[in-house]
Amino acid sequence: MKLHGIGLGAALAVSQLFHVSGKSMSPTINKEGNDSILLLDKISSWFGMYSPKVNDVVVFTKPGMKQKSVVKRVKAISGETVVTKNGTVVIVKPGHFWAVGDNQACSVDSNDYGQVPLQALIGRCLLVLPLNLCYLKRYIGLL
Fold first, then answer.
1. Do residues 24 and 108 touch, judged by C-beta distance below 8 A?
2. Which residues of the chain fall below pLDDT 50?
3. Helix H segments across the chain?
4. In what order do the strands lie in the sheet with 96-100?
5. Are 117 and 99 in contact (CB under 8 A)?
6. Which candidate, 81, 59, 69, 65, places its Cα nearest to that of 127?
7. Cβ–Cβ < 8 Å for 84, 90
8. Which is nearest to 60 in space by CA: 72, 49, 77?
9. How far from each other are the two terminal CA atoms of the chain, in whole angstroms?
10. Contact between residue 102 and residue 20 where contact means Cβ atoms under 8 Å apart
């Protein structure tokens, strides 16, 4: 039994639960307008063991807003070319990535604030939990 507790403690030390609201990643995240909880792998990005890959869902600090974290899908990585939603061609600089929301109609993303530096990366999404936020607050007390 103690081993499970140690394993859970270790898992929580290297991962993070991240609350997601909004529609920019719908339908992948927040289906039917419900909030979601993401389980993030943080340790890999802390120690440089992870570099974003195209189609990864990641959480990062929004450029220019250090207190605002967002979740988006990686569309292009260093050295790749991307066409923005207004038709501009951009080559992603070394040490950066281009991230967009799955629901382009309501996403504020790299099309608006540009390339994201790797230093802004918080973690990669491992699991999406489409849970009711009221349930979490009342019964689990996670948030």
1. yes
2. 1-8
3. 2-14, 43-46, 110-113, 133-135
4. 15-20, 36-41, 121-129, 57-61, 69-77, 96-100, 116-117
5. no
6. 59
7. yes
8. 72
9. 26
10. no
pLDDT at position 23: 86
Instruction: Specify the length of the chain in residues.
Output: 143
Contact 38/129 with Cβ under 8 angstroms? Answer: yes
CA distance 58 to 41: 9
- pLDDT (0 to 100) of residue 5: 44
Tokens for 23, please give them.
């529609």
Burial profile 105-130: b = 16 or more Cβ within 10 angstroms, e = fewer: eebebbbeebbbebebbbbbbeebee
